[in-house]
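input
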Amino acid sequence: MTLIFLRTAIIFITLLLIMRLMGKSQIGEMQPFEFVITLLIAELACIPMADTSIPLLYGIVAIVAIFILHQIVWLLDLWILPFKNVICGKPSIVINKDGIDEFQLKKNNLDVSDLIESMRTSGYFNLDDVYYGLYEANGTFSALEKQEKTYTLPVTIIEQGKMIDNNLDICKIERDAVNKLLKEQNATLRKVLVMTVDGNGRVYFQQKGKPYKILHIKLGYSW
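output
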């Protein structure tokens, strides 16, 4: 037991020193390569702590080797811009002046619901509350907000060509009313990227590959 305690203490001190040398990004928002390195270090630290048959030096050398590789990648990232783009990636603009950019969403393995969730987390409840929205290389969502935001709670009615019947019931909107709106916009259900409606009947409507529109629909009740 004493041996395991001492081995764990040594690995702990080694890890603490290495993480401090790696910089503040290791305890904040990490780039993809930093996340991979952190996972590797955690795995390498566990093996010599749990298995006393493995020389402690092996674990320490492996952790130091990962630190050296981190510094090499960091220097290449700092000096060579194309290398930075390959290793860390680039920000993706998913909302522009025309609305949601479906191509950029798919490129980042995201869908409309992921975007809406990210916006709510950042304090934006309507898709047109921002001029531009983007996902940074580390996965965080950033936005250039509009001065006048719409302080209402929208509900998604159509998402990527599919009508959400449960939300229709919540809003007390008849399916026929939605079909009428689609007909007025010369749109079919499959061509609609997203449609949301708030408690005042204000509709955010965007077809795939087209700019968004702000419309209005009659509600069974307001919220």
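quick obs: The CA atoms of residues 4 and 51 lie 9 Å apart.
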